[in-house]
Specification:
- By secondary structure, this protein is of the alpha/beta class.
- It has two domains: about 5-105, Rossmann fold, CATH 3.40.50; about 130-205, ATP-grasp fold, A domain (Dna Ligase, domain 1), CATH 3.30.1490.20.
- Helices cover about 35% and strands about 20% of the residues.
- The protein contains seven helices and ten strands.
- The strands form three sheets. Strands 3-2-1-4-5 form a five-stranded parallel β-sheet, with helices on both faces. Strands 7-6-8 form a three-stranded antiparallel β-sheet, with helices on one face. The protein has a two-stranded antiparallel sheet with strand order 9-10.
- Helix 3 (about 90-100) packs antiparallel against helix 4 (about 110-115).
- The longest helix is centred in the C-terminal third of the chain and has 19 residues, at about 175-195.
- The chain is elongated.
- The two termini are about 10 Å apart.
Length: about 240
Amino acid sequence: MKITKILIANRGEIAIRIMKTATKLKIKTVAVRTAAEPNAMYLSFADEIFDYSEESTEIPVFLDIEKLIEIALTTGADAIHPGYGFLAENAYFADKCLDNKISFIGPSPDAIYKMGNKTIARKIALAHNIPVAMGSEGNISNEEEAIAVAEKIGYPVIIKAASGGGGRGMRIVRKSEEMEKLFVIASKEAEKAFKDPSVFIEKYIENPKHIEFQILGDKKGNVIHLGERAVSYTHLTLPTIYSV
C-alpha cells in the first residue's frame, strides 16, 4: 500500500528527521501538539498539526495507543511512525495499527514480540547456533531457582527483565547472599516498567563491548544490514531486527 500521510507518534529531533525524510519522499506528515510543549520546534516541520494541548489525561499521548489510533483515523493518516522509545517496540501497538488498516512503520508485531522478549530471543539465537552468554534456559520463577542457576554458571551474574529494556529490571549479583533481595527488586521493577515481572539470568561480563547490527527488510524478501556500530551500554543484548 502506498503511504500518503504519516502520523509521527513521537517528538523532538527524531520527529524532525522523519518529517524531513517524508518531505523528500513527497509524503505528508502529522505532528501532535501537547500541553507540555505547545511551541516545540518539531511542530514547524509538519504539514499538519493535531492539537492535543487542551487535553488533560493521566497517560501521555505518545503512550496512549487508543488515542494515537484515533488521531491517525481523524487526520486521515494511513501510516504511523513511532520513532524510537515510547511505543516503538510495543507489539500491541503495531498490531492495533494493522487492525485499523494503518501501516506501522517498523517491525511486524511478531518480530517485536520475539525480539523484545529476551527469553524468546535467546532461544531463537541458540536454535540458530548463535553464541550467547551462559544463563538460564528460560525465565526464573523464584529466588531458590535463581541461586541454583547462578551457582551453576558462576558469579557474578545479572538478573534481566524478559520484557522491555533501557536498563530497567536489571541487577548485578556478585554473591549468593545478595540474590534474594536483588531478585525481588528486579522482578518488581520489571513489572512496574513493563507490566511483566518475568526475569532471567545470564553470566555478567565485566566491561564488555556492545556492538549492534541494524538490519532492514522490505517485506519482499530483500534484507540488508547497515554495518556494525558500537553502543555505549555496559550490558550485552541481542541484535535488533527491523522490518519496514
